[in-house]
Amino acid sequence: MRDAVIVDAVRTPMGKGKPGGALHDVHPVNLFAHVLDRLVRRTGVDPALVDDVIGGAVDQVGEQAQNTTRWAVLAAGFPETVPATTIDRQCGSSQQAVHFAAQGVMSGAYDVVIAGGVESMSRVPMWSNVPPGADPFGPGIAERYPEGLVPQGISAELIAAKWSLRREAMDEFAAQSHHKAALAHAQGRFASQVVPINGVTMDESVRPFTTVDVLSGLKPAFHDPAMASRFPQIEWSVTAGNSSPINDGASAMLITSSETAAKLGLRPRARLHSFAVTGSDPLLMLTGVIPATERVLRNAGLTLADIDLFEVNEAFASVVLAWLQETGADPAKVNVNGGAIALGHPLGASGTRLMGTLLAAMQQRGARYGLQTMCEGGGQANATILELL
């Protein structure tokens, strides 16, 4: 079986996902098209050689409807012969796009493929794909979970309660995320990834001077009297400050086989070593990163000690802190350049954003192995191990 390698990875800066945000005026098709265009320009690959483009987007409605990846491919000026598809595995959509792309290369179905994703949360608000009164779950789910499922914020609170995570610890983690991201920007550690757009060069959500004291003044974001009655164990410690913000952004990476890269004169940066995807309790919902990490290590024949750097998506601070407790990973190896709490979390784009961030950090630090994992709505998680070349 052939291997699959990453040739390059790019992303836009992450804008605040609200009217007036830095990228609000950019249509999501153009946002995604921008990174596709810059990716082929940087690598010098003829777009006509791309066998497929696999993109992630979560709210596939309105301006992100009808296979937005296909329209981005055409808006980027690729030949009409280049196909594209858009997938939804919630927050892990573009990480799953990488898995599908790499598996296609390894099987021989593809030689050159692009994986990426986009989410314009200011123009296509979260949950806009569920019209008022619509039931996306159906009677079968109501029968299996008669007490009802809960929003992700409540899941984050349940995780904090189950793992006895203090509000102070979550706020400290969030503050560190901002400080690490600000330092990474100041030292140019994102320069190899970020392709400016419309004059925007920096991630808009990073707050360099935030402190635990500032964060401690924020009110719980998801307090609900009905949920408080149902879950008396919740202490209501999840806030906007220790959660990921709402953002606009796009990201993409070029994946080939080693043989194809050599034929085209490309220098691969990393090998896509191993993959895993798991299901988990849809009530807790965000804990899948724990079994996904265990599974991908098992698939790879590696141990936690073999991994030099980790990227664990900071959907909520409680998710990463629970993962740290369960795995015993060294916190100093986790999200070394900050995470989604600071950098932002444009849902469909986050998977390849994290992977590009991990890849750059591995090269900067001379790391051999890096592991990425992301929790996903509905109780799932992806995990990927990269090997630096």
From TrEMBL:
Domain called Thiolase C-terminal: residue spans: 267-387
Per the record, the coiled-coil ranges are none
List where the protein spans the membrane: none
What is the active site of this protein? C91, H345, C375
Asked if Acyltransferase is a keyword of the record, the answer is: yes
- GO MF terms on file? acyltransferase activity, transferring groups other than amino-acyl groups
The Thiolase N-terminal domain sits at 5-258
Q: One matching Pfam family, short form?
A: Thiolase_N
Q: CDD domains from the entry?
A: thiolase (cd00751)
Q: What NCBIfam families does UniProt report for this protein, alphabetically?
A: AcCoA-C-Actrans
Q: Which family does it belong to?
A: Belongs to the thiolase-like superfamily. Thiolase family.
> What is the name attached to this protein's record?
Acetyl-CoA acetyltransferases
Report the source organism. Amycolatopsis xylanica
